[in-house]
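Fold it.
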Amino acid sequence: MHIGQYPFEEFIEKVKSFHGSVAPGIIAGGIMVDIARKNLPDGELFDVICETGHCLPDAVQLLTPCTIGNGWLKIVNTSRYSMTFYNKYTGEGVRVYLDAEKLKGWPEISGWFFREKPKHQQNLDGIILQFKEAGDQIFGIQKVRVKPDFIIGKKKAKAPIIICPSCHEAYRSDLGTKCPACQGNGPYV
């Protein structure tokens, strides 16, 4: 079995190096990326939406040119274990998801996915083996059309950068007369 251009075991090493540890969610995400790419026209320019910020974005960034930094990957947190690859101009694409109904024959994956045991009690080797054996059998796929408001390819003009009168740091002018942090929306006390 391959995930992307990597043999399965090599992909596991790539995950470890990229993510800091072997995470079942990135293994699932790697399989999902493969399913999505096999169901897109060759040569299509695509963007990606992940419906969770947990692990799936790392699989996308590891296996595709789509990253959060370049704007081709967006997280829309619906809390569903799903990703959508879509044409960056038309919004036509495919949504791939971990199908809970198909997990009945895969107890280690099911235990991980439904958090039936604390992480330290899960059998990571068993989960990895079951992902390798299950392949694409435990995933669902749908043809979708992304709403125009979510299409990343339709970028708005960037607002000018100005200096905040309170903290004297640069920020986008369309965010108000003071930067968001000085408006009370920063992460610090």
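Residues 91 and 147 are 7 Å apart (CA to CA).
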